Every structure is written in C-alpha cells, then in structure tokens.
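Key result, reporting period 2: structure in, sequence out.
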C-alpha cells in the first residue's frame, strides 16, 4: 500500500479520541434525525430498535472520558 494513506491507528497519540469522535457522530445522527423527522436506528441488547432522536442525551459526554 502507498505510504500516503494517512495516519496509522497504532501511531495515534491519543486513541481515546476515538470515543469522542463516536459520540460526536452519534449526536450528529440524532440532530439529523430530529431535523428530518425520522427515527434513529440503534442496537439494544442485540436487537435493532428505532428510537426518537435525542441529541441532548450526549451533552457533556464528548469532552468527558477516562481521564476527566
């Protein structure tokens, strides 16, 4: 593979940033669902569930983490 593929995962300075990125993506999915009047599809206990969007449930989580 070419060397210009981007930063390798094993060279990341802070792999915990992955959780923050996932939380931002989830919040954005909830915002889009709210704005378009659709449900958010999630997996709960191994079952696919459609839930009402609630982007506020992510308040404070994006900056939180193992070290805070």
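The corresponding designed sequence is given below.
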């Amino acid at each position: 593979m070419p060397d210009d593929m981007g930063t390798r995962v094993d060279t990341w300075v802070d792999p915990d940033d992955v959780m923050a990125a996932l939380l931002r993506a989830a919040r954005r999915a909830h915002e889009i669902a709210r704005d378009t009047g659709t449900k958010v599809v999630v997996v709960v206990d191994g079952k696919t569930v459609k839930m009402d969007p609630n982007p506020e449930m992510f308040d404070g989580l994006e900056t939180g983490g193992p070290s805070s």
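The radius of gyration is 16 Å. Strands lie at 40-44, 47-51. This case is discussed further under Risks and Mitigation.
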